[in-house]
Amino acid sequence: MLTWIQTLPNYTAYGTPIYFLYLILAIVPLSIGLYFGKRFAWYEALISFVFIFLMFDGTSYKQGASLIGYLIYQTILVVWYFHYRQRKNSGPVFYVTAALSILPIVIVKFTPAFVGHNSLLGFLGISYLTFRAVGTIIETRDGVVKELKWWEFVRFMLFMPTLTSGPIDRYRRFAKDYKKVPSRDKYIEMLGKSVKYLFLGFLYKFVIDYFFAEQWQPFFERMAMQHAPHLSWWTVGVAYMYTGNLFFDFAGYSLFAVGISYLMGVETPMNFNKPFKSPNIKEFWNRWHMTLSFWFRDYIFMRFVFLATKKRWFKNRNVLSSIAYMLNMMIMGFWHGVTWYYILYGFLHGLALVINDWWLRYKRKHFKIKTNAFTKGVAIFITFNFVVFTLLIFCGFLDKLWFHPFGM
Amino acid sequence: MSNRKKLWSIFGPLIVAVLMVVVVFLLPWKFNNTPATEQRAADSLSATVFKNRDLKVAALSDKKANYVPFFGSSELARMDLFHPSVMAARYHDYKPFLFGSRGTQSLPQLFNMAMMNQQLKNRKAVYIISPQWFVKEGVSSQAFKYYNGNYADYMWLQQANPKSPYDRYTASRLVFLLNDQGLVSSLANKIANGETLSAADRANLKVRLTFLSHEDQLFSGFFLNNNYGNKIAPQITQLPRQYNYPKLLTMAKEMHAAESSNNQFGILNSFYDKRVKKNIKSLKGSQRKFNYLQSPEYNDLEVVLKQFQKNNTNVIFMITPVNAKWEKYTGMSMEMYDQTVQKIKFQLQSQGFNNILDYSKDGAKKGFMQDTIHLGWAGWVKFDHQVSAFIDNKQPAPNYKLNDAFLSTKWANLKPSTTNLNQFKQDYLTR
Predict the structure, then answer these.
(1) Chain A closest CA to B348's CA: distance in Å?
(2) 0.90 cut: is pTM over it?
(3) Catalytic annotation, pick one of A117, A227, A289, A336
(4) Where are the alpha helices (DSSP H) in B31-76?
(5) Chain B residue closest to A61 (CA)?
(6) Residues on chain B touching A60 (C-beta within 8 angstroms)
(7) I want to staple B67 with a disulfide (CB 3.0 to 4.6 A). Which of A266, A336, B97, B336 is the partner?
């Protein structure tokens, strides 16, 4: 029955330059509407449907089915909780609801580690949808979500430009953008930014990343694998090439998502802000994959700190923040997937945040160092290289090098 | 600024840029490829040349230069003094156009050929087969993708016939190896299922091919490895002026002895230092389980043979040897190797491909191998000697009789004992 769907062409979001031609042509009527102060909701629903369909048709149709099931499940959960919350506010009910909302992704992330193959529930983008749904539940609990309609929630979840890989928006912010039409001046300004972001994205993803992803990283990996299972200087090269590849790929992708959102009159938040200029690791997380790290900061780190302070679990403020950092980054590690390298990556970043805090305190107390260009340069150098080192762990190459050198 | 001006300052540059790009790609630029570029492409061994069309078509259509296609894989990169490109430059009035590097097994070669059928028609060609290709999984998806591009796939899809079992086989392999959801996979899926491509599909392919061919004409002449300038040309005059086969062989053996002095295997010193020395202990006995008897590569080879038949290409095959001392050390079974060669030759000979240089038993000869599995020195001298005889002399027209039994998994998995081969012959080939 589903064979016809398997033969249809499939287009992952922003995969090829030609994709932009189709997408932007489809968005033109919408843009003209926005320019003249109208938001054609039905037309937008139509093109969103078409482009989401193209991501999940062909041989990915099973993922499409999982997406639909997942969406129905989350919508029922969120809408139910919203109605419940208008009447009552019980802690256990909130915790159970949040747990149920996280349940699918927990299953999906743990399945490969235990069963050895990917879960059937999974689909491209499940992590990002989970962040949006759970974030909405938490904000509902806080009482800041005052209004929630099921179709608006679905629109938020399925917002096509950011569907599969973020940036992670918040329901309240998104709904506010969505309910109004930007003024003409504002929209023209957004168009200008959009064009700029899209072209910067092209430069990142289709030009610079080509060299990192297709030329340099494979070359260094091949050379490094000749020394497997031993480390070599080539492996160091892999670390830098992977860092370049990841940044230009992901930052390019995020620029596309933001640029297309702006065309559609929605100010999706930025994901990267010159992360390699960071003088310390805390600053790095304020500049790298920002919507993810802010999500973790607001909903895990801060929540834990509030809870622990309220219940007086720790006497020492510094111990509290250290535990919170570790918890925060370990969860982020597990979120990436249940493998030793993701978890170690999370652990190292947690540890780095703890050490960074300690060092800043220690420095303030014991040294009178004036910040100048040199100290800043040293700080940036250390931070950057630490990040490169952890990304080498993160990328899984070491796993291949040490444990599966013959591709087994 | 008025709104109109603002919009123009945003979209104006964009519109101009798009127009410029369209103009650049749609105008039929014809950069005449100079003989120097062709020469560089012929020895570059680069994936760019392999995946594109303009340079190889120009070179093979160049009557004056007289290029002969040499299809092979990693051995082509062993550019010592007696490499066929050096030898041809010194002694013969043809030039090898080298197609292949590590990982270009039958299937990548098929797509390479599909871009230049016209140039292969009624021509001679050389095809080097390495038994190492015939591993259980066949060509790796990674290697295939590295040497495969949309340009070749689109051209192949244009000529694919959904009624031909050969093309259906190739299509299903393409889908399997690409393992993605792009246009190529979806069209190849149709072919594999025996459906013809629609007029819309064909139109789509045509537009894309126009862009790709212009892109190819514009860019593929840049960034070519200059193997010709760096490795081939400087060696030409080091060869004696007069061609003398026994003399060249002696010379090759002497050079081999001098350049492989630091190891017991007769491997080139620098190769040994770089690739072998460090792991020498762990390599002992490491190839004991190698097995090339059962592989989809046999089926892949068959579609290449079909392509030669279609183009009536008169092809000479060479089956590569392995370094006997090395294989003894690593424990590879020579019996298995011989059987593999027997199976390959059975497939070739029973379909009328009778020009075969079988070097599989030459791996112990002095100076024959440059390293563990690649020809060098004396090996190249012999190869050049026999290949040039084939190319320079008039050959009887080929008479190939293809049999699609060789596309079956039964053939891929057949253990080539004499009984099994006879049985296979009886069951499928005598009709």
Answers:
(1) 32
(2) no
(3) A336
(4) 35-44, 47-51, 54-61
(5) B181
(6) 181
(7) B97
